Amino acid sequence: MTLTGELLVGSRPRARAETFHAVDATTGQTLPTAFSCATAEDVGEACMLADAAYDTYRATSPAERARFLDTIAEELDALGDTLPERAHRESGLPMARLLGERARTTGQLRLFARLLRAGRCVDARIDPAQPERTPIPRADLRQIRIGIGPVAVFGASNFPLAFSVAGGDTASALAAGCPVVARAHPAHPGTSELAGRAILRAVERCGLPDGVFSLLGGPAHAIGAALVSDGAIAAVGFTGSRAGGLALSAIAAARPVPIPVFAEMSSINPVFLLPAALATRADALASAFISSLSMGAGQFCTSPGLVLAIAGESLDRFKAAAARALATVTPQTMLTSSIHATYKAGVAALAARPGVHLLATGPESGPRACHATLFTADADAFLHDPVLSHEIFGSCALIVSCPDFETLHTVARRLEGQLTVSLQMDATDTDQALALMPVLERKAGRILANGWPTGVEVCPAMVHGGPFPATSDGRTTSVGTGAIERFLRPVCYQDLPDALLPAALRDGNPLALHRMIDGTD
Amino acid sequence: MTLTGELLVGSRPRARAETFHAVDATTGQTLPTAFSCATAEDVGEACMLADAAYDTYRATSPAERARFLDTIAEELDALGDTLPERAHRESGLPMARLLGERARTTGQLRLFARLLRAGRCVDARIDPAQPERTPIPRADLRQIRIGIGPVAVFGASNFPLAFSVAGGDTASALAAGCPVVARAHPAHPGTSELAGRAILRAVERCGLPDGVFSLLGGPAHAIGAALVSDGAIAAVGFTGSRAGGLALSAIAAARPVPIPVFAEMSSINPVFLLPAALATRADALASAFISSLSMGAGQFCTSPGLVLAIAGESLDRFKAAAARALATVTPQTMLTSSIHATYKAGVAALAARPGVHLLATGPESGPRACHATLFTADADAFLHDPVLSHEIFGSCALIVSCPDFETLHTVARRLEGQLTVSLQMDATDTDQALALMPVLERKAGRILANGWPTGVEVCPAMVHGGPFPATSDGRTTSVGTGAIERFLRPVCYQDLPDALLPAALRDGNPLALHRMIDGTD
């Protein structure tokens, strides 16, 4: 698997004069391959091909798309360690983590394949004609959901496999019947090329049209902006910063035909330490907290950046234990020098806010390692300074102490939207937990009890989403089978001859799909 | 049922010094009741009450909400002819139509009640824990969809019952578990008050919290703007003009926390007359077309405003027959003098475009009646002038002749998004229809064969929606059971004790809902 550095515009790889290089995340050294930077012409051609492929691709049966997704997973597996090893060089993430991430990536492709084979996700509905109905007869009405159109997928920095070129957004868009134009994250162009070529081999093996998948790279923001602006693009999947997500949303809203942007952006994942749990197991909670916070240098959307509790001796014990645990974490290289610089700036900015006190830092290490940091503040400071609620991407957290439960409840009500909130609780904390639940349900896509938010299961019940600014559309999830719904739209067929209907809706049910008949599911 | 003209802010009706009057649509005379204009304070209070009611209301069971919806329908029925008679005075729409619209309004409330009782729409999912799984155990994960929050509903001008205060947006939002703050259309404040009071009686009968429903009136755009800007509002339902929908979308996007706007805006509902159908039944098609076009003075979102066909003798016959039929239509009073003035201006503007020819007009009548108008143009003119694609709300249509099928196909590809497209076809037109289908599926929410787009069935398979600018979100419908999905968002519960779970997800399934277990539906 030699990397060529080419852009993958459908089946037509091409090199461009302007190139960039990947950087070894651990050493900071430039890696050899010169990767082409996509031009406006490349963006336009990838979108044109995607548009041309759309009608053919969306008309494939769920079973055909399932085979395609399984084939992509096979091709990723066939890369062996080449893929995680390249991802390791480009991201600095440990191999064990990347092997797990690869399993997750192929697992979610196969999960969508199973979803398609189960045949419900196209939501076929038939309301038969009622010619005898009075005062007016009812027509024959049939509905199915079709892929919304070509989807632009932005690879994330922090999951070079699972949220990138062949990640969840791509898997759910392809499952929905949408061609994908992927925009490689500039920090891992080699990983992206390997994954992109795997997808293109699957396109070829499955006999799908050219343009079902393209991959564009390059560091310039203009590439993403051109992609989202292109008239052929019907929706956008993005995981990244709040600034990035808002910028893409603004571009999408300003188009002559606005399109939806599903941006997963910003979350500090509050953890509530309720009194009984804190009293009985402050040390264990502190240790688990630091373990969650320091995992992957805190470079997770679900990293626990805010701890909330009522002030007192138990919380003091928790803080002391957390500070001790922090001193023993192994510093980990951050994904990119830019992320590292942003982390340091965020920590410095938080440290300078009134009422914010440094509690502890982790060991210092190489120039690009994350220097884990814990701050404390009281509720009053937190409630009066919105900066204390800003996400700092990395192993930094703020512990906020409240004088009483009422204040804790007030802090909860004032939180922004979150991907997750967690309750650390014992049975005797149930009343307080019950009082918090309605607030937490308004604030977050996922609520955990006695767990830590890092680690997102890929399954039907998962919600990896949440109210703004956690995402740009809190009615969706980017992980789990529900992710496909972002890229589907319903079409209704009234009195159409069988020959004009999609196979999913024809008399005799040739695709053997589950279909809702007259409202009965 | 004496009208008071009061604002219905939750259970606290109130009068304001600034008032406005309804107008008898047929005579233009001012009607007696003085209706209060909502102030910024009223908007704020209605939103605050809705927010306060939200947690209680969304926690009701689907069965409780079903009872509420049925009770609203009962209360509307209990108004007897008072409601349609008032709607007739304020809208000029014929009583027969309004009796049908009332049946539709109560029918859709009852349809959502049945949907709730069927227990699937909350989409309960349980992925049980797998403590033995390697390398890491799986947590217990459960998901349900909850109401997104208080919804602002804007009453439409053209359906004073079915798309207004107690109309489809209100029914689907209440079904979802969302309080509603309705903004009465200023053209029918009395109809709105009657419907609003019916809903409030149902709130009381069902023991639901104050603030589940409020009704605000007044002619100023500032009322709607304040409503959409209010931090308590989580989503907007709107049916009206493109300008209105875009204005509300811009306000919603500019909020500190942006919210979704489901605006149904603009559609010219193209009808394709395919050659064999046109050759064999030009006269019958013309008669049915004029019947659809002139119904309700063309004041339907689905009025057929564009006819497309290949030039020739058959199309000439169709035009001649349409012109004859148009001469015999009964002119109908338009909904408001403003809509009438906009109609006349739109007709005049279209008449002035190069290549647009007047084919025929209907009879003239009173000062506010719709003067039905038919224009013709060729494909070249249509393709080069976007004004020819603009919606003219009323009985005005443009017949576009194409030199050949290839041009017809090109015109189809260049259409904007539509609520509907219709094919008039015989069996021998199937090849052309098949060639058009992929284009039509991209363009419209509903595709009809040998029918006319006016008349929207309320049923599970209906899609009353479509790509922009037909709506602001082509992934949704505002009619049919799918409308509820606009106002739901998923929440995932991880390892929560049974006591903290919503009843729908508790062990033992106390609500006896359908639940997806481990992905099996």
UniProtKB/TrEMBL annotation, chains A, B:
Report the domain of life of the source organism: Bacteria
**Bilayer-crossing regions:** none
**Gene3D superfamilies from the UniProt entry:** Aldehyde Dehydrogenase, Chain A, domain 1, Aldehyde Dehydrogenase, Chain A, domain 2
| CDD domains, per database record | ALDH_KGSADH
Q: Which molecular function terms from Gene Ontology are attached?
A: oxidoreductase activity, acting on the aldehyde or oxo group of donors, NAD or NADP as acceptor
A Pfam family assignment = Aldedh
According to the entry, every stretch annotated as the Aldehyde dehydrogenase domain falls at: 18-458
Which keywords accompany this UniProt record?
Oxidoreductase
Alphabetical list of PANTHER family matching this protein: ALDEHYDE DEHYDROGENASE-RELATED, SUCCINATE-SEMIALDEHYDE DEHYDROGENASE, MITOCHONDRIAL
* Protein name from the UniProt record: Aldehyde dehydrogenase (NADP(+))
